[in-house]
Amino acid sequence: LLRLPSSPPPAPPSPPAPPSLPAPPAGDTYTFVFDAVRGPGSDGVQLSEVVLYDVAGGVLGVANASATDARQVMNRYQQAPNAIDGSMETKWLDGGVSKGISTLQLTLHSPAVVGWYEFFTANDVPKRDPVSWTFGVVRDAAACERAEDDCPLDVLSVVKNAAAPMGRGASYGRFPNRMPPSPPASPPPSPPPPSP
Length: 196
Known about the structure:
Helix content: under 10%
Mean pLDDT: 81
Shape: globular
Strand order of the largest sheet: 4-6-1-8-9
Strand content: 25-35%
Low-confidence stretches: none
Structural class: mainly beta
Number of helices: 1
Largest sheet: 5 strands, antiparallel
Number of strands: 10
Radius of gyration: 23 Å
Order of helices and strands: EEEEEEEEHEE
């Protein structure tokens, strides 16, 4: 005798909700490590301006900008402080990316959480526009000053193959300081119902 179930089988469980991002860390020193430019055949990376924003969208005050490897300076009039001077007529130009990476470090007036950041292209040479970089907060500024190559960094985001604008003095748009988490893996398929 075959018995039919009196009610349908229960629905499979819903997939878990995606994890939320932890609160971004506050810091006073933030670093961009540029590893690719538009090209082809670039001799450096350059930007006219870099602007940091708090989580509410307000502009954060940057006290200092530096390139962590002063040996990569290509022009003494185009050093890191130009990236925060508020002028689209000046630029930061660094030759390190032609050898692998260029690093731009920004120190805030006081510790804060960076919610967003924005780049502006320099006034010339589009092949030097950055298209790939890592953004992070420095854990130990004193150790960073002592480091020969690497700086202790909490990575907040990694951008690859960004669409750099062709216009000069143009904004890339705002980038969030935290990338969203990867979507959760799909749940395994339900087992087939038992055969009668």
